[in-house]
Automatic annotation (TrEMBL):
Keywords: Membrane, Transmembrane, Transmembrane helix. SMART domains: EAL (SM00052), GGDEF (SM00267). Pfam families: EAL (PF00563), GGDEF (PF00990). It comes from Winogradskya consettensis. InterPro entries: Biofilm_reg_signaling, EAL_dom, EAL_sf, GGDEF_dom, Nucleotide_cyclase, Rev_trsase/Diguanyl_cyclase. Residues 390-645 form the EAL domain. Residues 250-383 form the GGDEF domain. This is GGDEF-domain containing protein. It comes from the Bacteria. The chain crosses the membrane at residues 21-41, 77-107, 119-140, 181-212. NCBIfam families: GGDEF.
Length: 658
């Protein structure tokens, strides 16, 4: 990969020496130029009043602390000396002002370690700006009062137009045009005020300099605000906005890193240590990303590197390998070694250039392709224009939810009370008739949508349809409790409680006829954050069921604290309980535990009579499964319900009518 991507990004002794040499050359050049101006234009330096020398000394003093607007990708410098050199140009002419300005530039160049090229550009830029201002001031023959004010404003406009016009010609891009422009205009218009104060008396000048300090504070505050808006609060790295604002030149590459299994680590260690891990990942990546490249945190566990010096895909792959190696050493968090790896997607910047949004989208596609294939690195190619299958499915689902004809349907599976054989409720199961793929099941839909904002829209759609269907059954004299699966993302949404209450009120459905199901593993990943939401739902009369019980890592303390009404035994235990003593023992233990906590128990996956009888013997409250009925659309469920008749002694054979 070369020296450019070495682990150490600090400048070496050779760079420091080169910067010092450049500063020395700039100072010598400024002195020689000023001497030449003195020799060529001696009359411009005769009969200079004390006010001139005060302004000149102040110009050199303030340029020791130039105003800098900067981040890792661009730097813009505003010289405070322009306040004084502009006033000198209006009063004593262009040559005297240029001499002072060049001296001020030399002072600023030493402080900022400007290269010779940078110092020369600033000298030409400010020299031309001063020349334009002096020319306009000479052409406008104005008297005292408003005429003099018009002359000053016109000269300041010429100064600004020349400087930033030159920027536009040479193609310089500045990050903070607003604050920089305001600061420049304020300094220029403040110059004549300082001059007038100096003419009144030197003792007044320090008071006027307070205005100069105010400009400095304004620039500093604007810079801090801009940095904050472009900086990730957790890691201190540039954020997505900074990446979007960066000019995407040709010959570069964007590398998108997504940490593998970070959610598992975050759930196991907690959010505090998860945040610490992200900080350490950012720090380690920053150590191996050179200064001419840009490292950003896009959000969550995603980072990106905009590499500016890439010869082709092979070079980009070498950079990706270097980044992956940097994460290869385990991270020590509270004495626990944590292994971290990343899937990396690469998008190459085309020769004709392109926008950042397209490049980021291509890098995301390549990253997802790497995850799907189990490869660590993938490069986006034009042959992969079609998005990965899950990305395409997610895009189709998002579009479907925006239209009325979405193809989203709900199937219902009855839940039977084991003691009486009565149908006590249903579970609503999501299906989607995709126009090309056919019927898409709930597992695939949830896997694609659960970690995206689409999940909330999907859940809202399901809740609306389920509550409406419950209202239809209630009006027909069949009040049935309907269970709806929701994700942790849904319970984190601040408006879900109000949304459910509004739906129940709109359809006049009692809250006890709606139950929300959440998986054990999802709930136990962050029980504290969802506790408030499910407590409010419980107070509103909406029950919470813990789904797939026995497959996660729940603690008895959480089960005791959470306002649960029901636990559902995972089908993997129920299916094996007739032939495996271990599964039967687990089911029996879950029933006993739930009973001691006052919770209702529902068994999933009941497919034969023997399992039904074993559940009855264990004291399980209800069951669902193919032994009674498969999931079916609402119309078919109505027909099934009309035919269903539990026989007396319901713990024996059940006549389901199917």
């Amino acid at each position: 990969m070369g020296d450019a991507h070495s682990r150490c990004s600090m400048p070496g002794d050779r760079q420091v020496q080169r910067a010092r040499r450049a500063a020395g050359v700039s100072v010598c050049a400024a002195l020689l130029t000023d001497a030449g101006l003195w020799l060529v234009f001696p009359r411009s330096f005769t009969d200079l009043h004390a006010e001139f020398w005060v302004m000149a000394v102040l110009a050199l003093a303030v340029d020791a602390r130039p105003y800098v607007l900067t981040n890792r990708r661009a730097r813009s410098v505003v010289l405070p000396s322009i306040c004084f050199t502009f006033a000198i140009a209006l009063s004593w002419g262009f040559v005297a002002a240029l001499a002072v300005q060049l001296a001020g530039l030399a002072v600023a160049g030493v402080r900022m370690r400007h290269t010779g090229r940078r110092a020369l550009y600033l000298a030409v830029q400010h020299g031309l700006a001063l020349g334009a201002a002096a020319l306009v001031a000479t052409l406008i023959d104005a008297g005292p009062g408003w005429g003099d004010a018009l002359r000053t404003v016109a000269a300041a406009a010429a100064w600004i137009g020349t400087r930033y016009g030159l920027d536009a010609i040479v193609g310089h891009h500045r990050l903070r045009r607003g604050p920089e422009f305001i600061a420049t205009a304020a300094l220029l218009l403040l110059g004549p005020v300082v001059l007038a104060a100096a003419q009144l008396g030197l003792t007044v000048v320090p008071l006027v300099l307070l205005a100069l300090h105010a400009v400095h504070r304004m620039v500093r505050s604007a810079g801090e605000f801009e940095r904050a808006s472009r900086t990730d609060a957790l890691t201190g790295l540039p954020n997505r906005r900074a990446l979007q604002a960066t000019a995407m030149g040709t010959g570069g590459a964007l590398l998108l890193l997504d940490l593998d299994r970070f959610r598992t680590v975050n759930d196991a260690l907690g959010h505090a240590l998860g945040d610490r891990l992200l900080v350490e990942v950012g720090r380690r990546l920053a150590e191996c990303v050179p200064a001419h490249d840009l490292l950003v945190r896009l959000g969550g566990d995603e980072f990106a590197v905009l590499a500016t010096r890439v010869d082709g895909p092979a070079s980009a792959r070498r950079i990706a390998a270097h980044l992956a190696d940097a994460l290869g050493t385990p991270f020590a968090l509270d004495g626990l070694p944590v292994d971290v790896s990343a899937s990396i997607g690469i998008a190459m910047q085309p020769e004709r250039g392109g926008d950042g949004a397209t490049l980021l989208r291509q890098a995301e596609t390549a990253m997802y392709d790497a995850k799907q294939r189990g490869a660590q690195v993938a490069v986006y190619t034009r042959d992969a224009e079609h998005p990965a299958p899950d990305l395409a499915l997610l895009a189709d689902l998002r579009a479907a939810l925006q239209t009325g004809e979405s193809g989203i349907v709900l199937y219902y599976q009855p839940q039977i009370a084991i003691a009486t054989g009565e149908v006590v409720g249903v579970e609503a199961l999501l299906r989607w008739r995709h126009p090309d793929r056919g019927m898409v099941g709930p597992e695939e839909l949830l896997r694609v949508a659960e970690q995206t904002p689409v999940m909330r829209r999907l859940t809202s759609r399901v809740l609306h349809e389920v509550v409406g269907q419950v209202a239809v059954w209630q009006a027909a004299g069949r009040p049935l409790r309907a269970s709806v699966n929701v994700s942790v993302r849904d319970l984190h949404a601040p408006g879900i409680v109000g949304e459910i209450q509004d739906l129940l009120h709109r359809y006049a459905v009692p809250p006890e006829l709606l139950q929300l199901e959440i998986t054990e593993s999802a709930l136990m990943a962050d029980p504290h954050r969802v506790l408030d939401t499910i407590t409010r739902l419980d107070r509103a009369g909406v029950a919470i069921s813990l789904d797939d019980f026995g497959t996660g890592y729940s603690s008895l303390q959480h089960l005791r604290r959470l306002p649960l009404s029901e636990v559902k035994i995972d089908r993997s235990f129920v299916l094996g309980m007739a032939g495996e003593r271990g599964d039967a023992a687990i089911v029996r233990s879950v029933v006993d535990l739930a009973g001691s906590l006052g919770l209702r128990v529902v068994a999933e996956g009941v497919e034969d009579e023997r399992t039904w009888r074993l559940l009855a013997a264990d004291g399980c409250h209800a069951a669902q499964g193919w032994f009674h009925a498969r999931p079916m659309p609402a119309g078919d469920f109505d027909d099934w319900l009309l035919r269903y008749r539990p026989l007396p002694g319901c713990q024996g054979q059940i006549h389901s009518g199917v």
